[in-house]
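Hey, can you fold this one?
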Amino acid sequence: MNYKVLIIVFTFFLGLHSYTQQIIFDKVPEDFQLFPRDSNNKSSVVFSGTIIENNYNEFKVKTFKDGIFYGEKSLNITNKKFHDSITIEAGLFQFSFKLYSNKKNIEKLLFQVDNIVSGDAYIITGQSNSHGSSKKSTYISPFARSFGVKTGYETYTEEDEMVRWGLATGNCKDCKGDNWNSGYDGGWFVKNPFGIGVWGMELAKLLIEKHQIPVCIINGGSGSSTIEENMLHSEKKSLETSFGRLVYRVNQAQLKNNVKAIFYHQGESDTYLGLSFSSGRKRGEFTNYIKNFEVLNNDWLSVYKGLQKIYLFQIHPGCGGDFQSELRDIQNQISKKHDNVEIMSTTGVVGHDGCHFSFEGYKEFAKRIFPLVSRDFFGEKKSTIITPPQLLNAYYSEKKEITLTFDQPIVMEEFYQLNEMKYLMKNQFFFSLDKNKPSIYGVVNTLKVNNNQIIINLKSDKKYSAITWLPNKEYLNTKDIYNGPWIKGVFNKIGALSFDNRKIN
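Sure. Predicted structure:
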């Protein structure tokens, strides 16, 4: 039921006579609603409306916390109108409200709402890896909430609009199987009420258990979407776009000005060059990604006024076009340009099948990003490094030696074995002699790690101008998607951000 405008009609029979009292509520809480907490760790729950026939002396709201009476407040009626708020505290408890009328000192229950919480709101969006669901995702919590139907590209129907607040889920009734190598379907293109994906649900679990605060996550991801398809597109009707459908849900949840952060996993569909189509839909060009992200970022900031952080995932080598290495580096550039953007790698995440991730892999997404959220929104001081290793500098340290300096101590896997084939780390570096894309390989003699540095010993004294780590998406001269070896942080075991065409000083 839509409570935005709620008319409650009470009919009383007095002998042969009857009369009707009408109350129009223009703002009341809904079952399972999460109210955003303020800086004082509290939320205001508003009750307001109009009395059609002013036969009431007052309204009284009784509040219950976890089923125990918590307090009551009278809502005075002035000119047939009432407007007041009840303050609740954030934490792992649920509130109920009972609204009573008082006429001639007789109380009558008019309205009751249950399972109200105070906490934080977040958005997840992007393409399929932003919302992968699984039958294995069985965790559920009374303090993990969501709103509406995650639809992808499907029309948001009147029936969908009737789905309001509920308990978030990483499951999906139409998901097929759990074997990533045999017909797995993570619900990429199906409607899913309250669906927030596997890693959305794991992130909610971590936040609730560690910080004891309820969360609402609204997931607006659309499988295979380009960055352009995630934009506002003000010339189109709201519910015709992924952006519009997401904003509609956030707005209906009354959270538009209180979204703390957006988690964005997208980019595989923008790894092309030139006009390209797949299944009748246009693919994105990597050369436009920086410009398009500026548009998208401005769209987000213009709509979600309380937005503080954007957590951007650098894509994994996999499905998509032939310019993934370039796009991954562009994503890193974006994070350096914007103070509100934090980047997280997906290199080294377990269970990658060439496009998507296993149940455990998606859970690792949440585990990687959770410490950043704890730092940014809960003031948690970290004694260890929580960000992915990234390249700071590449320079000639000797005539036949290049040193790569990272922002933290690293470890390096020597090889990765696939189908009895060993893929050596030293063959995953590519070099350039000019301004062209680095494509020279097989020129590394040995590699050595020294704290936060990789020492590359070359076979010759040729002077290379640029270096790339990681092939585009496949092991060279194969059709096998790259899945290791990796460079990782010593302390956090997070995979390093890949880099493309970086200048060698």
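The longest helix spans residues 359-378. Let me know if you want another pass with a different chain boundary.
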